[in-house]
Amino acid sequence: MSSSAPLSDPQNNPVFPALCLHPLNDSFIPKHISLNPSGQRVKIGRQTNAKTSPGERNGYFDSTIMSRQHAEVWEENGKIFIQDVRSSNGTFVNGERLSPEGLDEDIVEFGIDLVGEDKLSIIYHKVAARVSCIFNEQQARAEQQQIQGPL
Questions:
Q1: Most exposed among 12, 21, 37, 93, judged by the fewest C-beta atoms under 10 Å?
Q2: How far apart are CA 142 and CA 127, in angstroms?
Q3: How far is Cα 37 from Cα 109, in angstroms, rounded to an integer?
Q4: Under-50 pLDDT residues of the chain
Q5: Whole-prediction pTM value?
């Protein structure tokens, strides 16, 4: 799979700390979300208008299952945290519903799969991703190679 989100700014400098989200289902395109090292929180949520249109570098998704304001992610002292902000369907890390905070390199899920009346077919998919935390140039290069795949 070739991809998408560049891991550099317009001057081609790596951007970190960052989260790279790789979809585990077809619910979104891969994302590279830069985090501000000052601890400023990045909002994760559902698209509600043109300003929250999903993109490769933001935390917005085109997903009915997500709340408008679903979660927040931030970096603090070399660690990345995620916090559910009272979403309707929850935020999960490695299958467990989040308490207030905690994320390193894990599987993150926003919401749940909604199943049809037949109890088998999925009507709406949760947003699920494998998360990589990027803190330096070496990790950024390794992540870029993984996204682009072998030459």
A1: 12
A2: 24
A3: 24
A4: 1-8, 100-103
A5: 0.66
